[in-house]
Amino acid sequence: MVLMRQVTGLAQVIKVLLVLSHDVCAQAVVCTPEGASMRIIRKAALSGRRPWAAALALALSVPLAIAACSSNSASGKSSTKPISGGTATFALPAGGGPNSILPLNTITVYTNTNIFDFQYLMYRPLYWFGMNGKVKVNPSLSIADLPVFSKGGKTVTIKLKHWVWSDGQPITSRDVEFWINVLKANKTQWGGYVPGEFPDNIAQASYPNSSTVVLTFAKAYNSYWLLYNQLSEIIPIPQHEWDRTSATSAVGNNDLTSAGAQAVFKYLESQSKSLNTYTTNPLWRVVDGPWLISAYNASTGATTFVPNKRYSGPERPRLAKFVELPFTSEFAEVAALRTGQVDYGYLPVEDLPSAGSFKSSGDTVQAWPSWGIGYQGLNFTNPVTGPVFKQLYVRQALAHLVDQPAIVRHIMLGYGYPTYGPVPVVPASSFVDKYELSDPYPYSPAKAYSLLSAHGWKRNSAGVDVCVRPGTGASDCGAGIPAGRQLSFNDQYSNGSTVLNEVMQTFKTDAAKAGIQLNLTSAPFSDVYSSYAPCKTGQPCTWDIKDYSEGGDTFTFSPDFYPTGEIIFSSGLGGDYSSATANALIADTQTSTGLAPLYRYEDYIAAQLPYLWMPVTPSQVSVIAPNLHGTLPQDPDLEIYPENWYLTK
C-alpha cells in the first residue's frame, strides 16, 4: 500500500476480478470493493510468502470454469501473426476492483483503480498525460489542442477537437462547463480538492462558442503547473445526457445554478453507487473513451469492456474484449498467471525469484515504475526527539545510513529504484536536475559518524551516541538537546511484508554502524498510518519515525503530474516539518515561469531532508503473455492503453 496526501489537515491516502461472456467467469474470484484509500499506486500489498501448495490451493478454490475464460496459453507458445479481435485479460491489484464510474470522485473512491483502470477507459480527461513511457502531456490523445496562455499567464484559451460521444453528439465547451459547474458547487466532496486551487482559483470562465473555453485565473501561474496540475483535472462529461436531477426528469441547464448543480451531483452520485446497474443505466452508455462496459460484477468489480465504435482518438481498439480481473489475494493472482489465465498480471516482490520461470516460458517480465518518491516520516513535534530531528546534520547522518543501492540490488532484486529528493529520478525527465541526480547523501557510515561527532556526540559503552556537548554553537548538539540525550529512535513500520522487514532490519544494522539505535516495531498499516497526521495541541505525539510501505512511504504525482511540493512539503504536513524558505520556493514553482523555480525548490528540499529518502519498489513487476502485444512501454502515470493491445497466434 502507499502513501497519503494531506491538505490543510485532511489526510488523503494516495501513489494503489474476472468476467467474460458468461457470469460463471465473473464468479471466479471474489474480493471486496476498494474503500477510503486515495491515489493508491498500482502496487499489490506485500504479505508474508506462503508455501506454493497453499497458494495454489487458494487459487483452485474458485470454480474451474475460469480455465475456459482466458485467451492466453500457459505454454507460452505464440506466433507473431496478429489476429482480429480476441480477449485480453488484465489483473488488478489484489483486494478490490473498481467501484465508482462517475468521474467526479468523492474522497472515499478517489483511487487509481477507479480513475486510471476504469473511468479513463470510458471518460477521457481534457488533457492526456503519458507518452512513450514518459511523464509529459500527450497532444494526440488529448480532447483539446494545447492551451494558449495570455495576459501574462492569467488567461488560458482551450480549443476542443472534433471528438464525439458514443451517441454521436459532439463534445462541446458546454460539456466542459458542465463538469466545472458541478465541481464548483460540490468541491468539498471532490477527492482532488485543494483549497485555493482548482476550481477556487478560477476568476472567470467563458465559453464563446461550442469549441472554445476561456479560463481566467486569479493570478498568473507557471504554465507547467497550470497545465499539469490544474487543467489535468478537467474531464468533459455529457451535459446533454447527465444534466438532470432524477431518472424521470428532463435534461436541462440545472448546473447553471449552485442549487441545481448540487442536485445534479446528488443524482449522478446515487446512480454511480448503484453498481449493479452499470451495464443497463443509460447514463453510462454515453462515453467518449475507447471502451464501453459490457459486463460488470457488482460484488467483485470484475469488468468486461467492448470497443466504443465512435471513439474519436487516434488508436481504436483492436481487441474484441478487454477484461479486468480482481483477485482475493496476490497468491491467487500468481497462480492464475502460472496457469495461463491472465494475459497481463504482476509478481509480488516476494515472488520475484520466480521471474525466470516466466521468462523461460516466453513471458515478458518488466518493472512498471510509478511517478513517485519514497521516504520515511520524521516527527519534528515529538517533545523528546523532535529537537534532534530539527538538526540538519542529524538528518544528513541518517540519510548517509540508507544503503539505497544495496537495498535495490539485494532486497528488491534490482526491480526497485532510488529516491534522492522530492522529484522522482525514474523515469528520466526534464523535471529532475543534476544536483538531485548526483545523490547528495550517498551511503557512508563513516561520513554519518563524522557529522555526529563534529556536533558533540560520542558513543557510550553500549555503542549508542550520547550528546556530550549540549548547546547551540556550531560544534554543539543543538537547541533543545540536553547532555546525555541518546540517538535512540523508535521506528515503526507496517507488518506483513518480508521485503519491508528486510529493508528495516538492514537500516537498523547500518544505523548502528554510526551509533544510532533504531528500535523497530511493526503494526497493521492502519495503526501505523493513523498517528502519522500532524499533531494537534493537547494530543500525544510520541512517535519518532514512521514507514508503512516497501522501504518508504510512497507519494505519487498523479493526476497532478508536475512534481511540486505544496501538498507534501509545505509547513504543517506529515511530521510537521516547517520552513519559510521551502514554503516560498514551493509557491514560486506555481507562479514563476519555466523550470528554474522547480530546480531551486527541489535542490533545497533534497538538501534539507524534511523526510528520510528511501528507495521504492515499482508500481508493479508486470508479467505479460507472449501473445499479447502493444503493452510497452508502461506508463509511469499509471495509465493503461488496452486500445493499443493486440493478440497473436
Task: Please explain how this structure is put together.
There is one protein chain. The chain has 649 residues and is an alpha+beta fold. It has 18 helices and 25 strands. It has three domains: 4-120 and 289-368 and 620-647, Periplasmic binding protein-like II (D-Maltodextrin-Binding Protein, domain 2, 3-Layer(aba) Sandwich); 129-268, Dipeptide-binding Protein, Domain 1 (Dipeptide-binding Protein, domain 1), CATH 3.90.76; 373-613, Dipeptide-binding Protein, Domain 3 (Dipeptide-binding Protein, domain 3, Roll). The strands form eight sheets. Strands 15, 18, 19, 20, 21 and 22 form a six-stranded mixed β-sheet that branches. Strands 3-12-11-10 form a four-stranded mixed β-sheet, covered by helices on one side. A four-stranded antiparallel β-sheet has the order 6-7-9-8, with helices on one face. The radius of gyration is 25 Å and the shape is globular. The two termini are 37 Å apart.
Mean pLDDT: 86
The CATH top-level class label of the largest domain: Alpha Beta
Superfamily at the CATH H level of the largest domain? Dipeptide-binding Protein, Domain 3
Give me the CATH architecture of the largest domain, please: Roll
**SS-based class:** alpha+beta
β-strand amount: 15-25%
Stretches where pLDDT is under 50 for at least 5 consecutive residues are 1-78
Q: Can you count the helices?
A: 18
Largest sheet, if any?
Answer: 6 strands, mixed
CATH topology of the largest domain: Dipeptide-binding Protein, domain 3
| Helical residues, percent | 10-25%
According to DSSP, the number of beta strands is 25
How many domains make up the coordinates? 3
End-to-end CA span: 37 Å
Radius of gyration: 25 Å
Overall geometric form: globular
